Amino acid sequence: MIQVRVLFFGVLKELMGKSVDLIDLADGAALRDVLAVYESRNPRLKESLPSLALAVNQEYAGPDTKLRENDEIALLPPVSGGAPEAEGTPSPSTSLRADSQPAGRRRYAFIVREAIDTLQTMGRLKRGEDGAALVFEGVVRNQTRGRKTLYLDYEAYEEMALAQMESLAVQAVQQFQIRDVAIVHRLGRLEIGETSVLIAVASAHRAAAFEACRWLIDTLKRTVPIWKKEYFEDGAVWADGEPFPAEIPRANL
Fold first, then answer.
1. Which residues are bridge partners to 142 per DSSP?
2. What is the pLDDT of residue 98?
3. Which of 84, 88, 113, 145 is buried deepest, with most CB atoms within 10 A?
């Protein structure tokens, strides 16, 4: 027998009535065996499987992935979402593996719980050789689909989210030939007008900065495990996320 730790996020946390669980499995068990355990406990989970992704030890994984003692399993609903990238935008291949950051290399990505300081971030980023410095801020708006929004609450699978953001930044630097980038995402309660995510890009030329920034926010919003709950005057719901990209395995495959 082996024991694994299972994590639930967003709407799944409410569906299952918990955020973490420990279960025992037979030797040689795979991720699909974990799903079978929870389907038997809560048949409503089966309806969600086509849209869910899975992770083992903070890496996306398919249902046939074999498990070992003390593995950490995460069931991931579609992430916070956003409009897909525009047609014609360069789209480098996205690596789903968030490799460990080499010792001594600077960080590109940050998760915070305090207000994001855009000017300070850009001030640290810019250098004399830059001909372009571009900032994107995702801001909490006061309505969603015609309903008045009171505030938002963001949560994340923090270790995996940070690693995925770091991996995206490294890809952007390499593939768009930008000089530097910073990605900052805030968690917790955010009021109307506050910045939830910041992407800052510095490069010699503006075209690379625009292309990298657009690709970064579009890809982050489809692949990085961060979720938002929207609070309205008449209740609260987890925001519907964009479907995971095809290269991320689904829970029912």
1. none
2. 55
3. 84
Given CA atoms 22, 24, 29, 35 in this order, what sign does their dihedral have?
negative
The residues near 45 (Cβ < 8 Å, ≥ 6 apart) are: 12, 15, 16, 35, 38, 39
Contacts for 66 with CB less than 8 Å, ≥ 6 apart: 28, 29, 30
Q: What is the pLDDT of residues 59-100, one digit of tens each?
A: 999 999 999 999 999 999 999 865 554 444 444 545 555 554
What would the mean pLDDT of 37-57 be, rounded to a whole number?
94
Sign of the CA dihedral running 208, 243, 222, 229: positive
Residues in the chain: 253
Per-residue b or e along 226-235, where b marks 16 or more CB atoms closer than 10 Å to that residue's CB: bbbbbeeeee
Structure tokens that stand for 77 in this block: 């609903």
CA gap 217, 240 in Å, rounded: 17
Interatomic CA distance for residues 96 and 219, integer angstroms: 11
- Three-class DSSP labels, the chain: CEEEEEEECHHHHHHHCCCEEEEEECCCCEHHHHHHHHHHHCCCHHHHHHHCEEEECCEEECCCCECCCCCEEEEECCCCCCCCCCCCCCCCCCCCCCCCCCCCCCCCEEEECCCCCHHHHHHHHCCCCCCEEEEEEEECCCEECCEEEEEEEEEECHHHHHHHHHHHHHHHHHHHCCCEEEEEEECEEEECCCEEEEEEEEECCHHHHHHHHHHHHHHHHHHCCEEEEEEECCEEEECCCCCCCCCCCECCC
Q: Are strands 235-238 and 226-232 parallel, antiparallel or unpaired?
A: antiparallel
Mean pLDDT on 144-166:
95
Q: What distance lies between CA 171 and its chain's CA centroid?
A: 16
